[in-house]
Amino acid sequence: MQQPQMKKELSTHEVASGLGKWAISKGLVEGLDAATEAFYLADVEKVGFSADAEAILRAKGIHSISYNEPGHTIYIYTKKKIANKDLQVLPSNFLGVGIAYPQGSVDPIGREVNKPQGAVCSIHKTAQAEHYTCGSSISPGNDCSAGTMGALVRDKQDKLMGLTNNHVTALCSHTLVGTPILAPGVLDVGPYTMAPITLGFHVKALEMKIGTVGNLDIQSNLDAAVFELPNESLVSSMQGNAFDTPSETGSPVEGMRVSKVGRTTGHTEGRIVSRELRPVSIKYSVAGHGFSAFILFGNVYSVHGTTGPFSAAGDSGSLVVEIDAKGTPIRAVGLLFADGSDSSAPGDMRTFILPLEPILEGLEVKLVGGHNV
Fold first, then answer.
1. Tens digit of pLDDT for each residue in 306-357?
2. 164 and 336 in contact (C-beta within 8 Å)?
3. Distance CA 132, CA 147 (A)
4. Phi and psi based region of residue 353 (left: phi greater than 0; alpha: psi -120 to 50; beta: remaining)
5. Are 299 and 39 in contact (CB under 8 A)?
6. What is the 3 state secondary structure string of 9-69?
7. Which of 88, 112, 318, 329 would you call most buried, defined as having the most Cβ atoms within 10 angstroms of its Cβ?
8. pTM summary value
């Protein structure tokens, strides 16, 4: 297959952008408004595959395109599985960048939460008391659900708060301010388990705007919320029994080794494999409020677990931290908010995370470590 001649060597993002523009022009993926496309796609000309390769991708359907800049790899996620015979036609290398074709999708949020693989919560003991840890089950007191308390944070008035997803405690911005937040979450309350306690009260959620792209600023869409913790002795910044929350923050980078502790899958490790080229559309539902909508998010990263899924439903809200080769936490980099299928991942699942620093900035809070450890 003859490839187009380029005047200069392109970055992986630029090649992915050129392919994205080609896919849009061919109707292989849905185009967004010009301003949004210009924000996410590099300023390069469109570049594309042969007619035979185009026909294969049209038949299989493109779900999304993501890229790994340091690894010089582009992932074209398809709706239907690519057959081995198709790989003889589809390029494995394009303009000096490797191309992979996993089958993948994004799971809707609001479906049934997975059963936990172990305990839904952890208690950390100090000389003073017992403390509920981050990485444990929480929910609004008036909703039969369960998600994860990702971290402790402090606002400008030095009030201690719990950090999680908007869809976990704010129920996609439907929870009234002052609503009690229970631990463990209502879904996890049962016989011979920890009796629920009121950890705190819902305070604030970042807006998740709904509507046609072009009429709203999707760059500000961040799935995050905080709830006030009036009794600071009830909680610890420990992530389960695995490690304390690092106070330092940073940005996620493709190839980075990461770890998290969550309500469903507990302590897992993995690696950031790619960054989504364009905004990701995720379906949210809140049955108790009759809410259902697709919401777009930009700046989304995908994570693969080391030996199996990095997360499952119920781990939403978990803090994602960078780790070194020995598994020691270095800095906090993201907030886990969704997952989906991925034929190239261990356990055939990938996890979606949002960068942490814009979330902390939007909520006007700072990450807390060293609390009741």
1. 999 999 999 999 999 999 999 999 999 999 999 999 999 999 999 999 999 9
2. no
3. 14
4. beta
5. no
6. CCCHHHHHHHHHHHHHHCCCCCCCCHHHHHHHCCCCCCCCCCHHHHHHHHHHCEEEEEEEC
7. 318
8. 0.95
> At 31, which amino acid appears?
G
The closest alpha carbon to 72, from 87, 90, 92, belongs to 92
Tell me the pairing of strands 130-134 and 235-239.
parallel
How open is the CA angle 81-51-278, to the nearest 5 degrees?
Answer: 60
**Number of CB atoms found within 10 A of residue 308's CB:** 16
Cβ-Cβ contacts under 8 Å for 191 (sequence gap 6 or more) = none
Separation between Cα atoms, residue 47 and residue 14, nearest integer Å: 10
pLDDT one-digit tens code per residue, 64-101: 999 999 999 999 999 999 999 999 999 999 999 999 99
Cite the beta strand spans of 184-245 per DSSP E.
197-205, 225-228, 235-239, 243-244
Contacts of 23 (CB under 8 A, 6+ apart): 29, 48, 57, 62, 65
Longest alpha-carbon distance in the chain: 70
> Do 137 and 285 meet the contact criterion of CB atoms below 8 Å apart?
no
State the distance between the two ends of the chain, measured CA to CA, in whole angstroms.
Answer: 59
Cα–Cα dist 129/123, whole Å: 10
Phi, psi of 42 (to 5 degrees): -70, 160
